[in-house]
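Folding follows sequence. Below is one example:
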Amino acid sequence: MISVIIPHLDQPELLSTCLASLAAQAGVRQPYEIIVVDNGSKQLPTGVCAAHPGTVLLSETVPGPGPARNRGVSKATGDILAFIDADCRASSVWLSEIERQFADPNVTIIGGDVRIGFEDPVCPTLLEAYESVYAYRMKEYIAKQGFTGTGNLAVRANVFAAVGKFGGIDIAEDRDWGQRALGCGYQTRYCPDMIVFHPARKTFAELARKWQRHTAHDFARVRARRAWWPRWMLRTAAVALSPAAEWFRIGRSDRLDGIRARLLAFTGLTLIRCYRASIMLSLAFGASATRMSAQWNPASMPALPRDS
């Protein structure tokens, strides 16, 4: 049995698309269950889940996708746990590929490919072009840092129990969990045919919130070390200057077609790297990392003191 666990927060239309993609899976031999865990939406996606018979809807009051996934795991009955996000669409062979991979008893954790779903492949937007190259680089994360994103992750249930639960909203729960798993001796295998499609952000503000959260997580780790301030400032300068070295990557990317899309990707990269550098500077000079971390469900977070 495969248990598919989906954290959800105020995305009923995207959740509906996600569930429809799971209902259309091809070639799956074993049964699977779908568990949606709502994390404080203004309105529970009761109707969306009811439209897909057999879907279980749970609620988790502790804010964060990690706690939501943990809640789903607590009710899962499968010996394989598969995680996908509510705003993702699974490829038609997503589950059968997970099933095929775990037929090998030596496989314990797998992470798949996350691609940008273009609204119009002929005319991508700036953010679609940028994120096609720079977002969700799961193969690289697995190879270099030993973790994969929790939006396209599958793990044996007994391995998850051995590694422990996902962390809360104050940390990057995917990296934290994956590196804890690595520390326990479990290797994550990259599976290029285990594909989900993620929509690009619609606005720069959405991408800005993502980088606020991720940069705050990085800052919290760096600040715990000695002599963190000069190291952080050097990293800030490197981020600001980095676009100049990235044209080669953009030019040879197989996820973009044509010069227009590549120019858009470079423009997006420059804007984002400059914005990230500005966030890093603000953190170095006293901005609250805790506030920046609370971006999954900020409405659920209590008021925090300025110096937290």
About this structure: Residues 299-308 have pLDDT under 50 and may be disordered. The first strand starts at residue 2 and ends at 8. The beta strands are 2-8, 32-38, 56-59, 80-84, 89-90, 109-117, 152-156, 188-199. The CA atoms of residues 85 and 151 lie 5 Å apart.
